[in-house]
Amino acid sequence: MRMKDRIAVVTGAASGFGAEIARVFAREGAKVVVADLNEEGAKAVAAEIGDSAIGVRADVANRTDVKAMIDTAVERFGGFDTIVNNAGFTHVNQPMMDVTEEDFDRCYSVNVKSIYLAALEAVPHLRKRGGGNIINIASTAGVRPRPGLTWYNGSKGAAIVTSKSMAVELGPENIRVNAICPVIGETGMLERFMGVPDTPENRKKFLATIPLGRMSRPADVANAALYLASDEAEFISGVALEVDGARCV
After folding, report:
1. Are 31 and 8 within 8 A, CB to CB?
2. Contact assessment for residue 133 and residue 229, using Cβ atoms and an 8 Å cutoff
3. What does pTM read for this prediction?
4. Residues with Cβ < 8 Å from 81, sequence gap 6 or more?
5. What sign does the CA torsion over 241, 61, 88, 247 have?
6. Nearest residue to 31 via CA among 69, 67, 66, 82
7. Exposure winner among 118, 200, 218, 240, fewest CB in 10 A?
8. Is 241 a residue whose pLDDT tops 90?
9. Which residues pair with 56 in a beta bridge?
10. What CA–CA distance (Å, rounded) separates 148 from 195?
11. 194 with 201: CB under 8 angstroms?
């Protein structure tokens, strides 16, 4: 049980990567706050997990919601050791000049500002506990950008650099910070990333850029998060772990 007696907060956890991270953490012994803008979905995942989880609504770009999410972990479980900033948003794959200002703002609010807000609310509690860890789900888009996703690529590049800077600044307080960079995955945002219908023919174009020949799966990202949250990674901080089938090589 690699997460025995641990408590975690996972955002964007009603589906996709976040839901699987929550399930894997719970399977390995953790209590989990399952947070998502989709409250019904968050509560469904928590109900599936059982008594060791609670589902809450949280808009990660809203500080009031983020505070309430953290307060839930403290009130329900007595605190937390790990927060996974998984919630994400992308504009549709399209020419950079065609992306609306609204979608640009949403990209940076959900993918970057959320890390800032989570830090404001979570770090004081981690300090009281004598340490902990923060995992930010970034993307290979921030390492090896694809055309058509310029503003999304930029937001994930910001998430990576922010994670590294946080690791340097918070390290002396025993708070580890890492990023995970999945390649395009089998999630609800797949068609937005592709910019075309999800057909076998269109998938082949993307798979051709991934040496291991498949997209990332929720289990791939969840297993990486489990490692980074566990004691096995106690000296790992400031990394951007590519879960990408060698896409970024």
Report:
1. yes
2. yes
3. 0.96
4. 6, 7, 8, 126, 129, 132, 133, 229
5. negative
6. 82
7. 200
8. yes
9. 35
10. 8
11. no
The pLDDT score that the predictor gives to residue 206 is: 86
Q: Identify whether the C-beta of residue 142 lies closer than 8 Å to the C-beta of residue 165.
A: no
Task: Break the chain down into helix, strand, coil percent, rounded to 5.
Answer: 50, 15, 35
Model pLDDT for residues 116-160, shown as the tens digit of each residue: 999 999 999 999 999 999 999 999 999 999 999 999 999 999 999
- Written as one string, the DSSP assignment of 113-136 is IHHHHHHHHHHHHHHHTT-EEEEE
- Asked if residues 18 and 11 have their Cβ atoms less than 8 Å apart, the reply is yes
Average pLDDT of the residues in 107-118 = 98
Which residues are part of the catalytic machinery?
A: 152
Amino acid present at 249: V
Residue pLDDT, tens place only, 172-227? 999 999 999 999 987 777 778 887 888 888 888 889 999 999 999 999 999 999 99
Structure tokens at 14: 């009603």
